[in-house]
Structures are given as C-alpha cells and as structure tokens.
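User: quick one, fold this
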Amino acid sequence: MAMVEDAARVPPGIVMGYAGQSCGKDVSEDFFDLACPQPADLVASGLVFALADGMSGGAGRRAAETCVRTIVSDYYAAPAAWAIGYRLDKIIASVNAWLLSHNVRAGDGQWMFSTLSVLVLRGDEFHIAHVGDTRVYRMRKAHCERLTTDHVWPRRDMRNVLRRAIGLDQHLVVDSLGADLAAGDRFVMVSDGVWEVLGEAVLERILCKESDAHGLAQRLVHLSAEKQRGYYGRNDATAAVIDVERLPASNAC
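Assistant:
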C-alpha cells in the first residue's frame, strides 16, 4: 500500500488521498494518476484525475497505464474551445483505436483491455467520462451517490464480464456526466477490487463515516485486501479520494 507522490501536485483548495495494493500479483493492474497543469491550463481546462483497471489474462497493467497517461497528457493539448465532454470523448476514442490496433497484431496473452473513469474539476462544475466497472462516488452533505454505471452483463453468472472496455470494440460508447461542483464535495474513485469485495452497503457506510481523505483511501484498500486474504483470484484494490475544500480557479472567477 502506498501514497501516490503526485498528490503533492494538487492545487490549493483540493485535498487528495490515495491508496493502492496489488493482491496476489507482483504488479497491480490498476493505475491512477492526476494531471499537473500550468496555472493557465488549470483556469481554462480544470484538473484531471483518471483511474483504470487493466483486464487480467493480457497486458493489463500496460493497458491501464496507457489509458490514464494518455488522458492526463492529451487533455491539455486539445483545443481549449472544445467542451470538456467532447474533448474527453475524442481522447478516449483515440486511445481506444490505439489499443484496438495493438490487439489486432498482439500475440496470445498480450491483448490490452481496460476500464477507465475520468474526473475533471473546473470552476463550479465537474465532468465524468466512464467505461467499464471502476466507479466514481460523490459525497455531498452526508449523502452518498454513485455517479457511474457498471458496464457488465446482467446475467448473474456473467456479472464480472465487461461488455464495454477500452480496446474491446471499435464502436465504443462512453458514459458522460456534467454537473455543478460545490465546496465540501467529496469524490471517491475505486476499482472493483474495492467496491465488489466490500459490497455496496459496507462501502457506503465507510464513505459516510470516515472524515480524512487519506485515511478513507487507506481504510478502503486495507479492508479490501484483508477480506481477500487467502482467496484464489484476488483482485487489485485502488482508491482515490478527492475533497473540494474550495472551488478550483476558472474563467468565471
């Protein structure tokens, strides 16, 4: 379990906690990162966080890292006039095309597929782009709300099988959400190694009780890892907690 060094890059007014642990593998197939924008980019485009979970049985870690690093770098290179949702769609479509091209040529066991959840905070608004079964929650005034939908098959025997993932389909559909941002909002980004292992009821109870961002992320991952101890096929656990103490700078300020 480790703290992401990039947490130091979060601008004033935003507090972030992070924890991640590989469960039964040498390297976690989850990957999380955030952008480090220049002040002018922060005002114009906001702050970007991204979490991906590479699918096991192939180059999962490489897929997750490719998705996240592409998002946090290419987002600020896109035209500032583009709407945030449109910008994220274009970048995700590009990385999806790259992974598809790789998968056509890849040998057995080297295919690259990944989930991806992206959170952008800009001024008084937030935006989410989402594919797969990583999750984003928002806590506002002690009310917990899940902001993403799991893209899995509805049958009980296939509930862990993704029907949407980056690199899986040429015609990728990305879920998008944009809404108002308020001081005091808390966003929690977790991989399925956290939410699936703990269960919805336990997860929401923990989200409502823990007050410290770093402590919450550590607690979620620790409990998930402990619950999986001794089981075959354990899942990597990753949690990032983003607290909005005051709204990020924006053109509207």
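User: anything notable?
Assistant: Residues 5-244 form a domain with the Phosphatase 2c; domain 1 fold (CATH 3.60.40.10).
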